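Worked Example 4.2. Consider the chain below.
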Amino acid sequence: MNTLLLAQSLISGIMMGAVYSLLGVGFSLTWGVMKVINISHATFGLLGSFLAYSLLQWIGFDPILSLVLTVPLLFCVACLVYQILIKPIMHAKEVIVSSMIITFGIAIILENLILLIWSPDPRVMTTAYTSKVLILGPLYIQYTRLAGFLMSVIGVFLIHFFLKKTYTGKAVRASWQQPDAAQLYGVNLNRISLITFGLAVCSAGAGGVGMALLYTFDPHAHNLWLIYIFLVVIVGGVGNVLGTAAAGLIIGVITGLSMAFLPYQWVNVITFGLLMIILVFRPQGLFQSEV
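Applying the procedure from the previous section yields the following C-alpha cells:
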C-alpha cells in the first residue's frame, strides 16, 4: 500500500468530513428538538452555495466572507418559512410524517426557484486561492479544502458553544430533553423552535458553501447532499452535535480512503453498506442521541 497516498487520502477525507459535519448539525437539531425531519435542509444549503457564488461573480466577494450577508438572509427566510409552513404542523398527531411531506414540497419549490434564477448549468466556485496549495513535505492541501475545513470546524464549535453556554442554547436543550418541564420554567417552545429552525438553516447555508468549495454543484446537487446528511445524523445520533461532527469525520475518512483505493462505483456501496450495518446493530447511532 502506498503510504503517501494513504496519508493524502486521510487528510482529504478529514477535510470532506468536517463539511459533512457542519451540513448535518442543523438537520440533527431540527430532528432532535422539533421532531421535524427537514427534507429541504440540503436545498437551503444549496441556496447558500448559489448566493455565495453570485456574490463572488458579481462583486468578487469571497464565499466564506459572504456568509456575513447570506447567513442573516437565510435566517430571515427560515423564520418566514417556519411561521407560515412549519409552525402549523408542530401540534399534528404525526409531526415527523407531516414535516417530511411539507419540507419535501419546500425542497421542490426551492429547487425550481434555483433553476429559474441560475439555470441548470453546473457551477464551480473559483476563488483567488482555488489553484493554490499548502505544501507540507510530501503532502499537499488545497487552500479551498483547508478554507472549507476551518470554516466547518468553527461553525460546529460555535453551535456547540451556543447550546452549552448560552441561556437560549440551554433552553433549546431543555426543550428537547424535558419539553413539559421547560414550559413550566417559562421557556417559550414556539420561540425555541423558531430559533432552532433558523439556526439549522443558517448552518445548512454555511455547509453548502463548504460543499461548493470542494465540488462542482448544480440545482440538483442537494439530492446527493441529503443522503449524506441522513447518513451523518443517523451514525452520529439524532440531536447530538459532537456525535454528528464525529460521524461526519468518520464518513469523510471512509469516503476519502475508498475513493483512493477502490473503483468509484464501490464508494457508495461501502458508505451506505456501513449505514445498513449500523442500523441493524445500533439503530440509535454510534453516539448517544442528545442535544
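The chain has one domain: 3-281. DSSP finds eleven helices and two strands in the chain. Compare this with Example 4.1 before moving on.
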